[in-house]
Design brief:
Elements: H1 8-17, H2 23-33, H3 44-57, E1 61-65, H4 71-79, E2 85-90, H5 93-106, E3 112-116, H6 119-130, E4 135-140, H7 147-157, E5 158-167, H8 183-196, E6 201-206, E7 212-217
Parallel strand pairs: 1-2, 1-4, 2-3, 4-5
Antiparallel strand pairs: 5-7, 6-7
Helix pairs in contact: 3-4, 6-7
Length: 219
């Protein structure tokens, strides 16, 4: 599971004492921890934060780019009002088969629309069918070199006042190390600066998980 920037004892206290979750969420978290790519899963604190965002926005339409085993989608779906929906974009049948199992067990499968295929194509179809400004909240947690394209698509999809959340923007500190020049790190650095200077949004970077940007689309 992705680590926070907190010292380990404080992180453990945060996760064990201050981040309540349901039995289904905890079992999904533990099953995913055994996965070779467990670091792709958000922490329980971030799941709670996403659920709070859904409630604060009174969100009914949510889009997620990058679903993995489904923890973040579950957290947001649990917070939706009746009739709410999360569209999940992912390319892996293997990973999302775990998600489907737990979504059903949690009773939120009817609130989640999983669409397998390249996210840029799924987002383009969503824009064509539901239109600009049709979504209340977007959460991006996928391949880092694709982040800029996902951000631009989600900026069209979310309504004025809607929020785009972007995960891993601090990249375990690598974005601050000039010696690190791989494609993922370079993409995150570029997007961080782009959003900082983007007049279309109000934005802040939170030290939640591995760094979480919140960008609010201006009217």
């Amino acid at each position: 599971m992705a680590r926070t920037f907190l010292p380990e004892p404080l992180e453990k206290y945060l996760f064990d004492v201050l981040s309540p979750r349901t039995d289904v969420q905890e079992r999904l978290r533990r099953e995913t921890q055994a996965h070779p790519r467990a670091s792709m899963q958000i922490g329980p604190d971030q799941g709670l934060f996403l659920g709070l965002l859904v409630r604060m926005l009174d969100a009914r339409r949510v889009v997620e780019v990058g679903t993995f085993t489904g923890y973040s989608a579950m957290a947001m779906a649990m917070a939706l009002p009746p009739g709410g929906r999360v569209v999940c974009c992912d390319i892996s049948e293997e990973y999302t088969s775990v998600a489907r199992r737990y979504w059903k067990e949690a009773g939120v499968a009817d609130r989640i629309d999983l669409r397998l295929g390249p996210a840029t194509e799924t987002l383009a179809r969503l824009l064509a069918t539901e239109g600009p400004g049709s979504q209340d909240l977007a959460f991006i947690d996928a391949d880092k070199t694709g982040y800029d394209a996902y951000y631009e698509a989600c900026l069209q999809l979310v309504r004025p006042g809607g929020i785009i959340g972007i995960d891993n923007v601090l990249w375990s500190g690598r974005v601050a190390d000039p010696a690190v020049t791989d494609a993922d790190t370079a993409a995150l650095r570029a997007l961080n600066l782009k959003i900082r200077n983007d007049a279309r949004v109000d934005a802040v970077v939170l030290t939640v998980g591995d760094g979480l940007t919140l960008a609010r689309r201006k009217g």
